[in-house]
Structures are given as structure tokens and as C-alpha cells.
Design goal:
The chain has 251 residues and is an alpha/beta fold. The chain contains nine helices and seven strands.
Length: 251
């Protein structure tokens, strides 16, 4: 039985005309009918046990995984839908780099289904922010689109202005785990007093080392958030095990 399903609302008006002229085609398998088809979504698999109680990722011996034992611990916990591979890998790439914003809806649906199974309560949903220059270049923040789609289904409060990325950072691609931590450390600032005492859920597309999520959670905890959880669509298959914390000598 499939773990996840997606529903596709028929396009209306001009969108319906476009669908007739240029039918949606699955970014993962190429089948016509939807941008992410039900057959591909049905192939998404859960992580096999034993699982880390903090990040719900695979661990060899049970108990906390190596990455969580070495984590600074600003996050209360992390959850990811699946390993970063087909079909979610193709869908994330298309959303992030090919301008296919329409994929935020089915992906947000999958995120909501996964989170609903966790039995965890939060008060507010936040996307991991991009620096304004990156938003101008790309035209949007893919995490904001995912978080908004998730929130519409979850019935939770959505806030894309509680945390800002005030320092422009290098791309994390190609950096070592320690370089990733140092690159994003203290890059975020909380801009809203409402965070005091709140249980916050951060949403992002991919979990690699967790550096960005921990740095964002650090800013929220310093501002008074009661606890911070993180939810991503996928996680890199190996790099979490090499996660470090902020460099020695940093606060």
C-alpha cells in the first residue's frame, strides 16, 4: 500500500486551456496527466528501522545516530520524508531550478501527510529563508512555497517574516560539513516578537548536514522559541553522519 498519495485539482479558466494545449507531464517518469504522477508518488518509501529518535533517520545500532550525537542540539528534532532520490529528487530540482512552482502543491501535500503521522504539535510554520538577493535572482524561495502549501493543508499559522537571512552566504554545494556550519552560523535573525514561547516547525526541501536548520533554530531559540522542529522532503543518504557543530570558539 502506498504511503503517500496526491490529489490534483483540475485547472480553471486559462489554466485549463493551457493544460489542453500543453498537458502536464510527470517530472520523474514523463507520463502525461500530472506534474508529479500518482504512480511515482506511490514509490516513495519510508526509512527502514532502526531509526534515530531525534531525526528519524537510519541508525545502525538504535539510539541517537552519529550526526545527532554531535549536533549542537538547537533543534528539538528533525523529520524527512525519504532519501534524496527519485521521484522526489527530480521534483525538488524542477521546483528549485526550473521555475516549476506548480510542484509545491503536491510536494506540500506529501510533507503534510508525513508530518500528520508524527503525532507532534507545533504552533507556527516557517520556511527556511533565503537571502533577499537570492530571492531576487531565483524569483521565489522554494521553501516558502512548500511551507505555504503545507500550511494550507495543516491549518496552522504560517509566517514567512519571523526569521530573516541577514547575511549573504556562499552556496552550500561542494562545502565540507564543517564549512557548511561555519558558512551559515549566525546568518539568521528573528524579526518578530511573536516567537516567544512558540513551538515552531521549520520547512526546507533537502536535509544534508543540518547546518542551515540548526543555525536557523539557534536564532529562534535565542529569541525565546520554546522548541523548534524541522521537516524536509528528503535527506542526503550519507552526509548526515559527518555533521559537525559551529567551530570552536564561537558562541
Amino acid at each position: 500500500m502506498a504511503l503517500y498519495t496526491v490529489t490534483h485539482e483540475p485547472a480553471q479558466g486559462f489554466g485549463h486551456v493551457l493544460d489542453l494545449l500543453f498537458p502536464p507531464r510527470c517530472v520523474a517518469c514523463g507520463a502525461f496527466g500530472a506534474w508529479l504522477c500518482a504512480d511515482c508518488v506511490a514509490t516513495v518509501e519510508a526509512f527502514p528501522p532502526p531509526l534515530c529518535p531525534r531525526c528519524a533517520g537510519p541508525t545502525r545500532r538504535g539510539g541517537l545516530c552519529a550526526a545527532c550525537r554531535r549536533s549542537p542540539g538547537y533543534l528539538r528534532g528533525l523529520r524527512s520524508v525519504a532519501v534524496h532520490r527519485a521521484p522526489l529528487r527530480q521534483a525538488i530540482h524542477a521546483l528549485k531550478y526550473e521555475g516549476m512552482r506548480v510542484l509545491a502543491e503536491p510536494l506540500g501535500d506529501i510533507l503534510h501527510q508525513h508530518w500528520a503521522r508524527q503525532g507532534l504539535a507545533v504552533d507556527a510554520v516557517l520556511p527556511v529563508p533565503l537571502h533577499p538577493s537570492r530571492v531576487r535572482y531565483r524569483g521565489y524561495n522554494q521553501s516558502s512555497l512548500l511551507a505555504a502549501a503545507f500550511t494550507r493543508r495543516a491549518g496552522l499559522d504560517y509566517h514567512d517574516d519571523w526569521v530573516i537571512r541577514e547575511r549573504k552566504t556562499r552556496s552550500q554545494v561542494g562545502l565540507s560539513p564543517q564549512e557548511r556550519w561555519d558558512n551559515v552560523w549566525q546568518a539568521f535573525r528573528v524579526a518578530a516578537p511573536d516567537v516567544q514561547g512558540a513551538r515552531v516547525l521549520l520547512i526546507d526541501d533537502v536535509l544534508t548536514t543540518g547546518a542551515t536548520l540548526e543555525a536557523c533554530a539557534h536564532a529562534l531559540r535565542e529569541a525565546g522559541a520554546a522548541e523548534v522542529w524541522a521537516l524536509t522532503l528528503t535527506r542526503a543518504s550519507r552526509s548526515r553522519g559527518a555533521a559537525f557543530g559551529p567551530s570552536a570558539g564561537r558562541p
